[in-house]
Amino acid sequence: MSRRLAECIPQGGGDGPEAVVDALHAALNLSWRDATKICVLIVDAPPHGLDPNGDAFPNGCPCGRDPVRVVEEMAEERIILYTVGVEPSIALYRGYYQELSRRGRGEYIRLADANVLAQKIITDLRS
């Protein structure tokens, strides 16, 4: 996993909101092994359509997908969603991401508390 993350190149889209639905949909459509499946979403902005101020796509993701439905599909496929929020920039949207994580059978964790993420995942898997 570390090797794959090191290959990632961060890029900006020019607006505040992010293509969260596209990321979740891409995760849903990965070729997962028949094992425990965990998605860790790291966010520092709201998804498109949640806050129209400065959003190039104020009506939501141009893909037309509903983020809640995508997360529910992930849960149906037994993909657990953990969201790591970069606060304070995401603090206004914490409730939104907490609910997405809850629907995804996971949890929302602040980046400042990310050191507990691995332990939370292990604990949740054992319960």
What does this structure look like?
This protein has a single domain (35-126), classed as 3-Layer(aba) Sandwich (Rossmann fold), CATH 3.40.50.410. 26% of the residues are buried. It has helices spanning 2-7, 20-28, 67-76, 94-103, 117-126, and strands spanning 37-43, 79-85, 108-110. The mean pLDDT is 88. With 127 residues, the chain is of the alpha/beta class. The longest helix is centred in the middle third of the chain and has 10 residues, at 67-76. Helix 2 packs parallel to helix 3 (67-76). It has a three-stranded parallel β-sheet. Strand 1, helix 3 and strand 2 (79-85) form a beta-alpha-beta unit. It contains five helices and three strands. InterPro entries: Thr-specific_kinase-like, vWFA_dom_sf.
Brief descriptors of the model:
127 residues, alpha/beta, Rossmann fold, three-stranded parallel β-sheet, 5 helices, 35% helix, Thr-specific_kinase-like, vWFA_dom_sf
